[in-house]
Amino acid sequence: MIGIHTPSLNWKWQGNLVVIPALVVGWAFGWLFVKSGKWSEKVIGNFNYPVIEGFLGGVLLAVGTLISKDVLFSGEFNIQSFASHVTQAPIYSLIAIALAKTITTNLGFSLGWRGGTIFPAIFTSLAVGGIVAQLVGPMPHLTVTLIMAVALTIIIGQPIVSIVCLTLVCPVQFLPFVIVTTYLTHWVVNRWTFLRP
């Protein structure tokens, strides 16, 4: 949910087992999101025909709605309802939303759309977190939080912005995990530059 919230959580020691898979998946998805943007820019970034760009952008949105209405725009208005059921949503639906929204967002920016990547990055990493949470089992909210923290830090490259955004989406109890994860991710990709997208 958007806003500061402290839901009751069922802490389990098995939650420790999700940390490494969540960090790896978060990095992999963040890498994919950024690379998708770079590939989109290479393919159509120098295409300077505004009318055709507008037409292609409309087609892109129309095709996106065939997959899900959640593919449209940045997603900030649907994050709250989406987050409330992401750990119970069908996995195939979450995969479709994560991939489609990643592609449409980055192609759209290459076609001249205006806006930022923060909300699309939160929305798509939330979908990926829901997939992994359903597959690994214990402490699904922790899994989703870690994946979002890593992916968002990789995508926008600013730990403080990632922390502020995730404070409004994730349970307050996970704030220490968010802080450690975002700064650790930022430090690792700056230390070992081959991990950068």
Automatic annotation (TrEMBL):
SUPFAM superfamilies: Clc chloride channel (SSF81340). The keyword Transmembrane helix applies. Gene3D superfamilies: Clc chloride channel. The chain crosses the membrane at residues 13-34, 46-67, 79-99, 111-133, 139-156, 163-189. It is found in: Membrane. The keyword Transmembrane helix applies. InterPro entries: Cl-channel_core, ClC. Keywords: Membrane, Transmembrane, Transmembrane helix. Its main location: membrane. It is a multi-pass membrane protein. This is Chloride channel protein. It comes from Fructilactobacillus ixorae.
